[in-house]
Every structure is written in structure tokens, then in C-alpha cells.
Design goal:
two-stranded antiparallel ribbon, about 40% helix, 2 helices
């Protein structure tokens, strides 16, 4: 997910995956969003697998996908 390096050689578009946080320095394309969703569910264990309702985040993602169609 690293983007092009700037004149100093630093990658400006990146995703920092840290033990207690996720920093996204990247445009939220569908591919990036899907990867972040996967991280939140499977690595950070944010989403409860037995959860039956929709969280605010899930509602936001549904609305965002509908607007992009």
C-alpha cells in the first residue's frame, strides 16, 4: 500500500499498523477500505462476530457504498 516516495525519499501514502492503533495516510479506495475492515475485524477484533445489529460504522459503509453506485 505504499505510495510514491517524495523528494526526501519518504513514502507519503502509507498505512501504519501499530499494536493499539491504525493510521491511514492514504486515499480511502475500496481496496484500502476493505483491507482496513479486515484488520479491524481479524487483527484488532473490533467487530463482535455475534453482533446482530448494525454499528454506526457499518451504517456509514453501507451508505457510502450506495452513494458510489
Amino acid at each position: 500500500f505504499l505510495g510514491q516516495a517524495n523528494e526526501a525519499g519518504r513514502k507519503e501514502e502509507r498505512i501504519d499498523i501499530l499494536p493499539h492503533s491504525l493510521h491511514v495516510w492514504y486515499e480511502f479506495t475500496d481496496k484500502v477500505t476493505e483491507f482496513c475492515d479486515w484488520l479491524l475485524e481479524n487483527v484488532y477484533l473490533v467487530k463482535d462476530v455475534d453482533h446482530k445489529g448494525e454499528t454506526k460504522y457499518e451504517k456509514f459503509r453501507i451508505k457510502q457504498k450506495e452513494e458510489n453506485v
